[in-house]
Amino acid sequence: MRIAAADVIVTSPSRNFVTLKITTDDGVVGWGDGTLNGRELAVSAYLAEHVVPLLIGRDAHAIEDTWQFLYRSAYWRRGPVTMAAIAAVDMALWDIKAKVAGLPLYQLLGGASRVGLHTYGHASGRDLPELFDSVRATLAEGHRSVRIQTAIPGVKAVYGVAAQAQASGERYDYEPAGRGPLPTEEDWDTGAYLRHLPTVFEAVRNEFGAELPLLHDGHHRMTPLQASRLGRSLEPYDLFWLEDCTPAENPQALEVVRRNTITPLAIGEVFNTVWDFQHLISNQLIDYVRAASTHFGGVSPLRKVMDFAAQYQIKSGFHGPTDVSPIGFAAQVHVGLSIHNFGIQEYMLHSDRTNRVFDQGMTFVDGYLHPSDRPGLGVDFDEQVAAEFPYQRAYLPFNRLPDGTMHDW
Ligand code: CS2
Ligand code: MG
User: What is the fold, at CATH topology level, of the domain defined by 3-104?
Assistant: First the structure.
């Protein structure tokens, strides 16, 4: 079975998505996700200009060989654009292989290790009453764990606070990226954040009790000592994890954090390969792997990093925002269902418009996410509907400190 055609489709139903369609010479179609929030056209050009010509005529079943070929033959390895492009190919080929086998992908990965995936949803608020309502709404959607993000006194717009984001311009799917010609400028004050956040977790614990698993995303903004202080001050509130507390480029930072706090740590949504996790996993500096199939080279490397992590009792917590398309999301739900060391799955619901383009078989019942038993990934892509929504320029925001210094967003 040979690859006969490969087409790249960029569509923007509620946000931009990059989708790869691979068709075999006997007419089987596989779908892959190469979406890179705010830099979508770079991946689509990388695929169309440099990868598609290499795919035509290749054995559609040779997934590992094709992955290694695209990774090694480029010479310029890794990086978000390259790895999102390779991810799209890898997913589409797994979709094809599973469709030919007549099985949902998780069966090819070893079968189901559990009935479904526990998820966490997002809750946020400008004040405590709004945050409590948001927690209740998240629980009502079926999530059993909740990520808490909150406004900070004196800071105008903080990452992850949906109502704030919506008030400051056109946003989509509660995600921070705005569609427009220029990125939005936000502000940040780490001191105010470190003082305020523990008071919010105390209030949430008092309102919702000791058992509800709570998470928090630091979005790469702290120094190692600031993160240590935050981890320590949140220990009484028993977090499921503190995510991305320090910038992702410096794995040694987490050695400092680890020495100073027993709050569990998660990182990796901006990582591209297993090498980014090597130091963190082998030194047991993290508890959860935050990679996303779409930004990590697809299903194949996600399996490998989780097998590596398993040797150290480190679990999965795959990145699942709406900037991963339903195809990329399904791919990692299949991985999560099959691996032994599954931890939790982040789950943000896609908009109705997105779901018109992507027909998802996935189900979310009694707090369990299941990728469906459709053959393949379980997602169909409607090219006609996609064509109704052309690409729209969109950027993630950026941050400045009160004195104007640029800061991590
Ligand atoms: C995030 C994302 O889901 C998360 O934990 O940190 O919302 C992230 O900001 C976006 O994926 C950026 O595109
Ligand atoms: Mg995050």
Answer: Enolase-like; domain 1 (3.30.390)
List the residue whose alpha carbon is closest to atom 3 of ligand 1.
321
Strand order in the sheet with 315-316: 315-316, 288-289, 265-267, 241-243, 214-217, 145-150, 119-125, 345-346
Q: Where are the domains of the chain?
A: 3-104, 117-373
Active site annotation includes 350: no
One DSSP character per residue, 104-134 reads BHHHHTT--SSSSB-EEEEEEESSHHHHHHH
Q: What is the CATH number of domain 117-373?
A: 3.20.20.120
Its pTM stands at: 0.96
Q: pLDDT exceeding 70 applies to what percent of the chain?
A: 97
pLDDT at position 115 is 97
Protein residue with least CA distance to atom 13, ligand 1: 37
The pLDDT assigned to 366 comes to 93
Please report where in the chains the tokens 């009502």 appear, as a residue: 140
160 alpha carbon – ligand 1 mean position (Å): 8
* Predicted local distance difference test score (pLDDT) of residue 405: 96
14 C-alpha vs ligand 2 centroid, how far in Å? 20
Which residues keep their CB under 5 angstroms from ion ligand 2? 217, 269
Catalytic residue at 196? no
Active-site residue, from 159, 172, 174, 193: 159
Ranges of residues in the chain whose predicted pLDDT is under 70: 165-177
